[in-house]
Every structure is written in C-alpha cells, then in structure tokens.
C-alpha cells in the first residue's frame, strides 16, 4: 500500500455475486457493467454506493462458477491414473497397484464428490435466506466447525 492515509490511488477488488444459471456469461464490457450496476442497485449501504460509484473507466470482470464432480474414469486396467490432485507419487504398501488404485479411486470419488457439491452449493446459499439458515454456520456455528477439524 503506497500511502495508508490517501486511498485515492489504491487498487480495489470488489466481488459482487448473483444467482444466474440461465443466461450466458456476458461477452462485452458494456453488458458486464450493465449487469453489475443492475445488481448493485439492490444492495444496502455502504455496499450499494461503493459498487455504483466505480469509475466508468474501471475494468469489471465477469466469471461463471463451474464445478467438476468426481466420476468413475477408465484407468486402462491400472496402467494410467492421473487426475487432478493425484498427480503426485503414491506408494502402494506392498499391495498390487491395481488394488490400491481401486481403493484410492473409490475414496476420492466419494470424498471429492461431496466436497464439489458442497462448494457449489455454498455460493448459492448466500442468495437464498432459507437455505442459508440450514448451513452449518447457522446450525452448529463456527466454533463447532473449527473444533471438528
């Protein structure tokens, strides 16, 4: 931060989200800005003013959240298995490699599938109050989440 008492030259990053599964991602800067301003008008202060007062020359990006759910894959009879975070050495502990890969594959698909679904649901929940109230933050609280780690 060049000057902590003079915020004018600072660079800022704002994140504005809204649920939208039907329309395509806006392609041009004008359409992105139009969507930004449309949704910013629905915010409460001071967020509303902050988002509406962004300089017309400021760049606004638009991105759609995406997810890839863990699904069974063809590992070519144990000859090749390389997917995502599995791109690291694995020891086989004296078992046939095919057995280890089967166990790893099943465990990753189950655990990874839950994590992907959860991470996809969380940003949607913040836009739906009734769903948000069912989240673990509301039902068991942050302290219980940390203690459960």
Explained architecture:
With 149 residues, the chain is mainly alpha-helical. It contains 6 helices and no strands. The two termini are 34 Å apart. Mean pLDDT is 74; it is low at 88-92.
Q: Mean pLDDT, nearest integer? A: 74
Spatial extent as radius of gyration: 22 Å
Low-confidence stretches: 88-92
Helical segment tally? Answer: 6
Main beta sheet: strand number and arrangement? none
Overall strand count: 0
> Helical content, roughly?
40-55%
Helix/strand class: mainly alpha
Question: What features would you highlight for this structure?
Answer:
149 residues, mainly alpha
Summarize the structure.
By secondary structure, the chain is an all-alpha fold. The chain has six helices and no strands.
Write the SSE topology.
Elements: H1 29-40, H2 47-52, H3 97-125, H4 129-132, H5 136-139, H6 141-147
């Amino acid at each position: 931060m060049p000057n902590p008492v003079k915020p004018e030259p600072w660079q800022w990053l704002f994140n504005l989200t809204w649920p939208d599964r039907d329309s395509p991602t806006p392609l041009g800067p004008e359409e992105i800005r139009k969507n930004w301003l449309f949704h910013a008008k629905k915010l409460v202060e001071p967020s509303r003013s902050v988002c509406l007062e962004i300089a017309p020359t400021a760049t606004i990006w638009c991105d759609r959240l995406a997810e890839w759910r863990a699904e069974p894959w063809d590992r070519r009879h144990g000859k090749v298995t390389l997917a995502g975070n599995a791109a690291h050495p694995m020891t086989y502990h004296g078992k046939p490699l095919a057995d280890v890969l089967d166990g790893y594959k099943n465990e990753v698909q189950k655990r990874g599938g839950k994590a992907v679904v959860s991470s996809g649901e969380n940003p949607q929940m913040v836009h739906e109050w009734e769903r948000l109230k069912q989240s673990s933050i509301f039902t068991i609280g942050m302290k219980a989440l940390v203690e459960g780690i």
